[in-house]
């Protein structure tokens, strides 16, 4: 039965404008709309022209209203289509959402099934701000009468959305001082972690985190450098019963081999020259909490044997000690290497590998979850602006996000953070651009500038990288660590640089000195 137009307009207006709580308002609308036309869900969608994203912010169905954070990035041609407010009908109808270029992208990103949809365009002051949609399973569910009714509520829905946004802005401003105080505390604790992408590209990762966090099982995080494995480890600790205990981070590749036993397991007074007092190691300091072993593939063989004992017996023995020390810890490991292959080649103990791989979690690289890029960029803009004590948060220049979406980000999230910081430094108060940074150009190809004088058709990337590291080493006088060392010049962790040099066959330390003497 098709409702009277006046009655439909009055009911929807009262329900959607009757409260600033969008969840409640949309649910009240759903209860009425579902009696008039096919409706399994109502969706309130907003448009962010700066980021170029369509965001599903609220959904309502028979179970109630739900706030959502589903972002879908649109290419420039689709953004132009929705921004041209007066060249399209008031209601967009899709007999099958997957046949519509815009709705199809949203459906695939947020997981909608096969359905029909009507979207009422919401316009304020001539600008497209979003849409109010009704969905129903199946195809071809909506006719001309339904479209006519749905077009009546564009204005009240737009007003309700605009009012809710303004209220949100007021609340955000009110919370700024409290947020600054929280930020200071968080910097001191370093335990409260924001996972950008937890509802998108890292959704599966966070589901695994929630499953394993309440337990004490060892976890192995596997992923490329810069994907945020430390952040995931921190999240596991925060969601565990050990959250009040210490969270001790160890970069296994950054500790010199001669000191690693003492650093990890401690030593007794007089155990070696310079051991003037008893020292607790990292494992003892993590008692009652969690220890995070980053770059665990870099552990030397003798330390692997000691770690195996910790996992098996829950005890350590200090260097020079005779009595075992019981420790209550949860071990989280991380690597960017193929440990299985290292086991096959004899570079990593097989028994230790299977002990730490009780619950492996693969952290995907950024190039496979590019829908996270707009949110990551906004997060780092706010974070870096605050660190630089900027009074205003800069906006993005037109097309900036499009260039970033085309780049493959070999350095992953860490590279995004660095790119944002450089853009802020260079911005001089103007909208942020990323042209010329890390291969990002206006063309959006995401290809870094070629090495001068190199014929890339015949020179392998491995050779270019090795040549570059050798030249930096020469500049640093063969020094790897410390200020002015090769790692400092390259902006790398010394342990990571040594690992790359081993893979590339570049000698260092005693081997380099022996070769030079010959």
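^ structure tokens above, recovered residues below v
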């Amino acid at each position: 039965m098709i409702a009277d137009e006046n009655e439909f307009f009055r009911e929807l207006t009262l329900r959607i404008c009757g409260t600033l709580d969008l969840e409640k308002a949309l649910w009240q609308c759903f209860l009425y709309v579902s009696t008039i036309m096919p409706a399994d869900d109502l969706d309130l969608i907003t448009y962010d022209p700066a980021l170029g994203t369509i965001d599903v912010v609220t959904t309502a169905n028979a179970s109630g209203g739900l706030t959502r954070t589903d972002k879908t990035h649109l290419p420039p041609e689709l953004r132009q289509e929705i921004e041209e407010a007066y060249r399209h009908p008031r209601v967009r109808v899709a007999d099958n959402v997957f046949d519509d270029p815009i709705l199809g992208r949203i459906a695939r990103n947020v997981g909608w099934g096969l359905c029909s949809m009507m979207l009422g365009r919401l316009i304020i002051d001539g600008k497209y701000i979003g849409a109010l949609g009704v969905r129903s399973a199946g195809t071809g569910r909506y006719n001309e009468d339904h479209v006519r009714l749905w077009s009546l509520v564009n204005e009240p829905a737009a007003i309700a959305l605009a009012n809710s946004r303004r209220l949100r802005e007021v609340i955000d401003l009110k919370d700024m001082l409290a947020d600054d105080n929280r930020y200071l505390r968080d910097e001191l604790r370093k335990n409260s972690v924001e996972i950008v992408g937890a509802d998108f590209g890292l959704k599966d990762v966070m589901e695994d985190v929630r499953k394993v966090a309440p337990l004490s099982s060892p976890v192995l995080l596997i992923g490329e450098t810069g994907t945020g494995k430390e952040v995931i480890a921190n999240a596991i600790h925060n969601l565990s019963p050990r959250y009040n205990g210490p969270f001790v981070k160890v970069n296994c590749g950054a500790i010199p081999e001669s000191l690693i036993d003492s650093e990890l397991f401690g030593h007794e007074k007089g155990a070696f020259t310079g051991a003037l007092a008893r020292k607790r190691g990292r494992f003892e300091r993590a008692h009652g909490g969690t220890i995070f072993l980053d770059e665990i593939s870099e552990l030397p063989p003798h330390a692997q044997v000691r770690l195996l004992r910790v996992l098996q017996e829950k005890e350590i023995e200090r260097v020079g000690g005779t009595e075992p020390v019981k420790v209550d810890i949860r071990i989280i490991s991380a690597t960017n290497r193929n440990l299985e292959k290292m086991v096959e080649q004899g570079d990593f103990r097989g028994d230790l590998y299977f002990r730490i791989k009780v619950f492996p979690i693969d952290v995907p690289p950024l190039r496979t979850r590019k829908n996270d890029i707009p949110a990551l960029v906004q997060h780092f803009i706010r974070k870096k602006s605050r660190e630089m004590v900027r009074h205003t948060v800069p906006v993005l220049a037109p097309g900036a996000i499009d260039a970033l979406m085309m780049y493959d980000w070999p350095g992953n999230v860490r590279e995004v953070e660095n790119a944002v910081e450089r853009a802020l430094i260079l911005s001089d108060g103007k909208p942020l651009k990323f042209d010329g940074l890390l291969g990002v150009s206006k063309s959006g190809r995401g290809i870094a500038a070629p090495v001068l004088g190199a014929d890339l058709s015949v020179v392998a990337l491995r050779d270019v990288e090795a040549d570059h590291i050798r030249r930096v080493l020469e500049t640093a006088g063969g020094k790897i660590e410390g200020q002015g060392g090769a790692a400092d010049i390259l902006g790398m962790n010394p342990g990571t640089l040594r690992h790359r040099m081993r893979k590339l066959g570049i000698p260092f330390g005693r081997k380099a000195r022996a070769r030079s003497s010959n």
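DSSP finds 20 helices and 13 strands in the chain.
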